[in-house]
Amino acid sequence: MSCNLHAGEETHVASSTASFLFYDSACFICPSKCLSGSSPAGATCNVQALSSGGTSIISYNSGASIESISACGATCLATPGCTNLYYSPGKYCNLKAGAETHKPSSTSEYYFYESSCFECASPPSCRTDYQGLAVPQPSDAVCNVVAYSNGGTAIASYSSGEAIKSLKACGAQWYVLFLSLPSRGGSCALFVTMSY
């Protein structure tokens, strides 16, 4: 068994003879369904603003995290240390840590949210199963497809160690590498393949 992580285009070729199972990173993330029209008490949500402070954890300009504010918020909640984010619809999801003193700006394309904007008062309808997969699976995610890799850039391949013990362990590795991608200068759209 092996675990291979790729960055960039989420391309694969479905094939019944392949020895890999393809999962894009969205298979392992529950999107937040908590953000509604009203902000939680004391939370700063949906403020058109420029960044001014805090520490950038990671910025996404492609992949599932930029597709909706709920997806960006869910990524923040799943990221250790994420306290707030900036979002530009369909373009950008920037996760930040620490105190943020945003500057309201009616000309900014970015919207500021504290992580508490995405915390549910009641349990979310999505959970992760014993394999680390979101249940139910996000409708736009490509998960558990027998396929060959056909694109992207290989960023890690494991043939021994913890990463190959289970799908959950392999899926967890993309998250660890995901946080280090800015220093690699890479894209953040990742997928996992498992061979048995």
Write up what this structure looks like.
Helix content is 13%, strand content 33%. It is elongated, with a radius of gyration of 17 Å. The strands form 3 sheets. The protein has a 6-stranded antiparallel beta sheet, with helices on one face. It has 3 helices and 14 strands. The longest helix has 12 residues, at 167-178. The chain starts with a strand and ends with a strand. Mean pLDDT is 76; it is low at 178-190. It is an alpha+beta fold.
Main attributes of the structure:
six-stranded antiparallel β-sheet, 3 helices, alpha+beta, 196 residues, 33% strand
Can you count the beta strands? 14
- The biggest beta sheet, please? 6 strands, antiparallel
User: How would you sum up the global shape?
Assistant: elongated
The number of helices is 3
* SSE-based structural type: alpha+beta
Beta fraction: 25-35%
C-alpha termini separation: 4 Å
How would you summarize what this structure contains?
By secondary structure, this protein is of the alpha+beta class. 13% of the residues lie in helices and 33% in strands.
Write the layout of secondary structure elements.
Layout: E1 2-7, E2 12-14, E3 20-24, E4 47-50, E5 55-60, H1 69-78, E6 84-88, E7 92-97, E8 103-104, E9 111-114, E10 127-128, E11 134-135, E12 143-149, E13 153-158, H2 167-178, H3 181-184, E14 190-195
Antiparallel strand pairs: 1-13, 1-14, 2-12, 3-12, 3-14, 4-8, 4-9, 5-7, 6-7, 6-9, 10-11
